[in-house]
Model the fold of this input.
Amino acid sequence: MIDVLVAEDDPAALHLTLKALRMADARIRTHVTRNGAEAVAFLLRQPPYTDAPKPALIVLDWNLPKVHGRAVPTVARSIDTTHDIPIVVVTTSDAQKDRDEAAHLGVNEYVVKAARFSDFAESVRDFTQRFIGSLPDGG
Done:
């Protein structure tokens, strides 16, 4: 199994992201956090995430409640055990300032959520293959 942390607060967006990840690679086991504070706690293995695995990939909504999404790459890049985890921001914001800030914080890829699910699923498949590989049969 390949552990992937998904930090997303919107239920509809979360549903679509999880569906796209399942379609992208059957080996993916998702771990969901609903805000930035939970995502940071997951990475730091703080309660209730003391037994959390190190994710192979972080899929991050940029505009999270409680603690902004920008805190997640800041924390991840500052810790020896998590500094190398690929981070993909998946967001509705196409603002250049957000893209620039994400790049400055060490985000590996910035994906604007597509209007059509098929386009979004293709983006998810592309970045999962790029950062965690693909199944031997190409799936």
